[in-house]
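Appendix B, example 12.
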Amino acid sequence: MDGAILGRATAAEQNAAEWRAYAAELEHSLLISRANKAGMEALKNALITELSKVDPKNYLFVQQNRQRIFDGAFDSVVKKGLHGA
């Protein structure tokens, strides 16, 4: 086996290892996002329940109002893109 072939094989192994690490990082990020979503959903439900006791006519009980708030925040993040802070 000559040096060029060995060099290419080593580079290919390194490249594969980098892609595996990147995939693992993405999977971890996805897991964290799913967990955050579940936590936020539970928190929202608890807050809505408590709010219903204090202010049963609050505008947040209308789904469209909650959706408008959600969409504003969602669109802001999407507009900034992956690398926007």
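The chain has one domain: 3-80. The mean pLDDT is 94.
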